[in-house]
């Protein structure tokens, strides 16, 4: 889709750039080579370029945007990318709210931003030795209008199978009020968490690292609930003996914790974090 108007007037334009960048991780255990291949094939089909385009189109609707251009691509052997250019639609401004509050969830979604874009790239992969398979989606929503891209957070998190979510929000540049005074941020924000629903906040372990004077906000989340059955691809835990269940649970939790903390962890740290062995057994 291409714009009929190649040039957009920027008179009275909000020059603040608000960028939300985050990684979503889905993690599973696939025991056999065939199961690992099937997991990658499943993810590749579930999040192909067509599906991702629909997700980003819904994001554009949430933040009130006109879609100017869409580029999408599926890759061989796996993975996909979608990029959208979007522009501000002043006709929908009165429907939008700007304060710290959660945006809608997927079932509540029924293209506003000049020189702005939305992108998503996917990265499915599996470990050849320990059976761990992961899917990562990298998403960027960059806006130069009135509305913060944080309004799309709820929808995006629930559109993917999100075991771990790592988010960065940054406001750059400045705009001016009618008196000419510079404004380096045009909306209230104390934490990315305030743009998540209460249900989402309760489901995740959350850490914030914010640099308020620089308008930089960082939040990372990891699911609290750990039911081994939810992480086994192609089989259930009843097909495994108790030792196998515990070994696989350790591998999964190690993967999740290392992604969450952004570093390789010693076994002693893993054992302390997962409080062996009760975390592995979910009745």
Polypeptide structure, described:
This protein has 2 domains: 17-224, 4-Layer Sandwich (S-adenosylmethionine decarboxylase), CATH 3.60.90; 236-283, no CATH class. Helix 5 crosses helix 6 (267-274). The model is unreliable at 1-5, 91-98, 107-113 and 276-283 (pLDDT under 50). 25% of the residues lie in helices and 30% in strands. The chain has helices at 33-46, 49-63, 153-159, 198-203, 242-261, 267-274; strands at residues 17-29, 65-74, 80-88, 116-126, 132-143, 164-172, 175-176, 182-183, 204-211, 216-223. Strand 4 (116-126) and strand 5 (132-143) form a beta hairpin. With 283 residues, it is an alpha+beta fold. The chain has an 8-stranded antiparallel β-sheet with strand order 2-3-4-5-1-6-10-9. Strands 7-8 form a two-stranded antiparallel sheet.
